[in-house]
Amino acid sequence: MSSELGKKEVKNWWADNPMTYGSVHGKTGYPDNPERSVPLGSPEFFAEVDQTFYSWNDPLHDQTGWFGKLFPYERFREKRVLEVGCGMGTMSMNWARHGAIVQPVDLNPVAAVQTTNRMRLNNIPVQAAQADGNHLPFADATFDYVYSWGVLHHSPMLELSIEQLLRVLKPGGEFGVMLYNRRSLLYWYFIQYREGFLHRESAFLSPLQLASRYTDGEREEGNPHTWPVTEPEMKELFGRFAREVRFDVLGTDVDFFMTELSVFPGLARRIPRAMKDALMRRWGWSLWIKGVK
User: What would you measure as the largest C-alpha separation in the chain, in angstroms?
Assistant: First the structure.
């Protein structure tokens, strides 16, 4: 399959299954309203999206705002900020509320429309654009800060996506990119061990196919392309385009891994918080890559 054909499949799959954070991937039903779905694009929908998204990432918030432990909001007030893969617009909205001149883009037309709709509902004069991360429609050195959250591992051409992201960043500008971590408890246990080994799917699926099937949209047998990365791989890749690259492992999934899915029944209650935090920092699902061009 060519990379362009693969990209078309990715675009179509996410248009049919947008990141709604619903109980079922792509749907608009939520645990606190199990009997009904809220209308896509309604104020109730965005409230549900935000509540779920924020709760999944609770350790990353601080007194400066949602995701304040990651994003240097104050430093980029009145500066140009680009989000590649805006989804339903939660993060772009927060940047705009902190005074940034934010430009959200997404390959998925549904995401671009709904992010623009969200901004209108909140009286924020920002319009999202449908754009391909492999061919960003901006001049070199346009933005002061660029970021992408949980998106570019879905790109069949990750290297080109990173090259483009940093091409449009000004020299001395900063970036942040979250990609799924292949050296994580979630990948090792759920994808390699449970699905690949116990369910014997490695006998007929490649590692890429297995990861794609059992990450986002697992109940729908996964999206067309998801390939988690490792820190050494990303150190080499980002090092081609940036003069400073740093890494954090964000293990906000570890509590869920141990308790909600009962991987180790009863064990989670006995593990000290400090030990859980250490597991999160070492083997969490999210690899946060940040640095300076």
Answer: 54
